[in-house]
Amino acid sequence: MQFPDYIKHERLKQWVSEMVDLCKPDKVHFCDGSQEEYDQLCEQMVEAGTFIRLNPEKRPNSFLARSDPSDVARVEDRTYICSISKNDAGPTNNWMAPKEMKEIMAGLFDGCMRGRTLYVIPFSMGPLGSPIAQIGIEITDSAYVVVNMKLMTRMGKAVYDVLGEDGDYVPCAHTVGAPLEPGQKDVPWPCNPTTKYIVHYPEERAIWSYGSGYGGNALLGKKCLALRIASVMARQEGWLAEHMLIVGVKEPSGRKSYVAAAFPSACGKTNFAMLVPPKIFKDEGWEVTTVGDDIAWIKPGPDGKLYAINPESGYFGVAPGTSNETNLSAMESCAKDTIFTNVGLTDDGDVWWEGMTKEKPAHAIDWKGNDWTPESTTPVAHPNARFTAPASNNPVLDPAWDDPAGVPIQAFIFGGRRSTTVPLVYQAFNWNYGVYLAATMGSETTAAAFGQQGVVRRDPFAMLPFAGYHMGEYFNHWLQFGREIYNPPRIFSVNWFRKDENGKFAWPGFGENMRVLKWIVQRSHGEAVSVESPIGWIPNYENLDWRGLDFSRDQFDKVMNMSLSDWQQEVLLHEELFIKLYDRLPKEMINVRELILSSLWRTPTNWGPTHE
Fold first, then answer.
1. What top-tier enzyme class does this entry carry (predicted)?
2. How far apart are CA 416 and CA 422, in angstroms?
3. Do residues 227 and 174 make contact, with C-beta atoms less than 8 angstroms apart?
């Protein structure tokens, strides 16, 4: 096999050769990340029926893909952490002994690319050459994966220059698991409908994925490397790999603060990352800019501050519910150069999904390729339909988003989807309380992962599906990490999803979240006023900036209401998680829980702001 001259890494060449021998592809293509290559592969997929080219006048250089109905989301029950010791994976991950799993994977990968092309994708998670970045090499038989990786990562020849002759890289092996016999006709979305494995070997820092062509299962730089493997690296090397967006907040004075926020999937992460401040704030000079919308890698800098990069270079956003009203910047980000997956196709060659416009199209083709009209009983787009768009399309991209040194983090925010119990905002009393707040975060389940919807599940740090080792050890890493920094970021909880007695959202959300963000930024600089509640510091009505919004004191009291009986119930649910993690749960978690319980016990039932 002929390797390009620019690949000088012998260990890498050996690995690729071994994978070619195992997978038995018809051809091998070394991706160079060029625009020509991207255009050629997109054209090839249009011819194969995988892509539909959208109307160039409405969506320049954009395409629609429809996946197999069995391949529409991350498959958490088929995702494994194969550490040598079962205890290291912990009770929140699926585990199998590496030796056993390797035998299964070797059997599945044997000849898995027959009739297909093996693509070798060099990519960097993070700006090329950044001290926080990591390099991966993915082999795949999916052109869909190649073009998505071009948008989502720094992908191309330049990666080999950084890698040199003996640099470290994470080997990522992916196949759709659908070999073609001679003369067999391919399908538009090849995958293995019945057999899927997404496998991580933390000690070897390697990833193998079989049977799925869908985003998080197939774009191995994303959740697999950037969270599951990187979280293991981070613990060993003293940094953090987190499921967090990063935003810059610029005040009228010119002061710029960066905030990182962790929300479970489908809790408004992309909307918050691209928040458009209310007009009165904009006119005054407030600006919110995006560094990243999904993943943050955070390392201590020489000055004692924490610096974060977005390891990705694009957005893999949930389409349904995204509109000019809810997220104008996301709509502009996917206006061109975008790959859409599982959305509707309109008669004029554009895309449409639920919530995109008030007026529905009279006719469209749904994500399964069937006719659809507003009278149809099924949605036009899958609830987890996606757009892959380059970050450079984002009109509110932060000027420092690509800075190899990263941006300094002033505050951490955690927030799930809770219709009751958790108030709109509160600040943890200190770092230990903050880790407790994040560790016990719960969210009502959504469509981003296969399974039940509407049940509260604990999602510690929004990392439940993504931590590559025991969750109790992960809490411990956070506790230790904060102690080693002289002045760690402040930690806050938010909940945009409180509902009123009629089941309607009690908080307007979206751009209005700026009012809460302003208080958070000022608190993180030790400036805004707060009150001590049983669970943390909270603002009074007059501590938030209400200009331009008609939101009464009574409405505010409802979104901030802390029902003591609800909270006592909540603490019992925390206990369920702690029992699960018992063997490696840090003592601080039990101690903080006791202090919260004591505060709740001593608080009168009618506790709350008093109004003159």
1. lyase
2. 9
3. no
- The secondary element (H helix, E strand) that includes residue 45 is helix 35-48
Mean pLDDT within 254-279:
93
CA–CA gap between residue 336 and residue 387 (Å, rounded)? 11
The Cα-based distances of 447 to 1, 77, 320, 378 in angstroms read 43, 15, 11, 15
* Residue 267 annotated as lining a ligand binding site: yes
In which band, very low, low, confident or very high, does the pLDDT at 466 lie, cut at 50, 70 and 90?
Answer: very high
Structure tokens at 175: 């196949």
26 is in an annotated binding site: no
486 contact partners, CB below 8 Å, separation of at least 6: 304
Q: Copy the structure tokens of residue 512.
A: 């209005």
270 is in an annotated binding site: yes
Rounded CA separation 65/388 (Å): 11
CB-hemisphere CA count at 13 Å for 539?
A: 25
Other Cβ atoms closer than 10 A to 552: 10
> What is d(CA 175, CA 178) in angstroms, rounded to the nearest whole number?
8
Is there a binding annotation on residue 269? yes
Neighbours of 600 (CB within 10 A): 18
What is the rounded CA–CA span in Å between residue 360 and residue 135? 44
SS3 per residue for 478-514: HHHHHHCCCCCCEEEEECCCCECCCCCECCCCHHHHH
Residue 343's nearest CA partner among 376, 378, 383 is: 383
Quickly list DSSP for 134-193.
EEEEEEES-HHHHHHHHHHSEESTHHHHHHTTT---EEEEEE-S----TTPPPPSS---S
* pLDDT greater than 70 at residue 452: no
Backbone torsions φ then ψ of 447, nearest 5 degrees:
-85, -5
Distances (CA, A) of 125 to 31, 153, 248, 269, 316: 16, 6, 21, 20, 15
Q: What is the pLDDT of residue 450?
A: 52
Per-residue pLDDT, averaged over 320-339, amounts to 96
Give dist(CA 1, CA 15) in Å, integer. 12
Q: What is the pTM of this model?
A: 0.96
The three-class DSSP label of residue 580 is helix
pLDDT digits (tens, 9 = 90+) for 65-121: 999 999 999 899 999 999 999 999 999 999 999 999 999 999 999 999 999 999 999
Type of residue numbered 342: N
Is residue 510 part of an annotated ligand binding site? yes
Helix, coil or strand: residue 388: strand
List phi, psi (to 5°) of 367: -65, -15
Q: What digits encode the pLDDT tens for the residues 390-407?
A: 999 999 999 999 999 999
Average pLDDT, the chain: 95
> Is residue 31 flagged as an active site residue?
no
Sign of torsion over alpha carbons 427, 240, 200, 122: positive
